[in-house]
Design a protein that fits this description.
This protein is an alpha/beta fold and 209 residues long. It is 36% helix and 11% strand. The protein has 7 helices and 4 strands; from the N terminus they run αααβαβαβαβα. Strands 2-1-3-4 form a 4-stranded parallel sheet, sandwiched between helices. Helix 6 (168-175) links the parallel strand 3 (158-162) and strand 4. The protein is globular, with a radius of gyration of 21 Å.
Amino acid sequence: MEEKKIRRSCVDCAVTACEKKDGNYPDFCPTASLDEELLEEALACYEDPENHKLAIAAAEVEYEGYLKLTRVEEIIQFAGKIGAKKIGIATCVGLIRESRTLAKILRSHGLEVIGVACKTGAVDKSRIGIPEECQEIGCHMCNPILQAKYLNKEKTDLNVVVGLCVGHDSLFYKHSDAPVTTAVTKDRVLGHNPVAALYTAESYYKKLL
């Protein structure tokens, strides 16, 4: 069978010339062949006051905290720079302890915190047609859309995801009115450190390839 030709892009790059002023771009580099109209369209979006505020704050947090601040500290800095006073935490019930600690830290910095867990509402999985076998790991559905709507109703200024499942996080991001950042990315096997699978893909996790 004929091997499918791979379309190369940024994930195939080993030089990242785009971050240097004098770099040499690979022949497949999107920067080298970028549609100017698309670039201008994207840049125009930063003229929106909300987008501009978030972009400037993110760049300043990156610069000021580079190799100095943990992600939790960066979230606090970011919140301050965008004027966020009310922080929503969308948490997995399996990481309630971690979310309690995060809430304690955020509150110690004068921030108001409203948390909502993924099982809020205690809705049976069958209610939305989730396959019956999925009940083997719990009868109640994760409800990220409810989490988002709950925090929307609370009018939070910034929402923080703590360990929502793959896909459930997608639904939360999609339905949140406030900007969202992530404190913890769930990986039940690797202690919520999913990048470990990438670091060991050529050795212990060779099965991924």
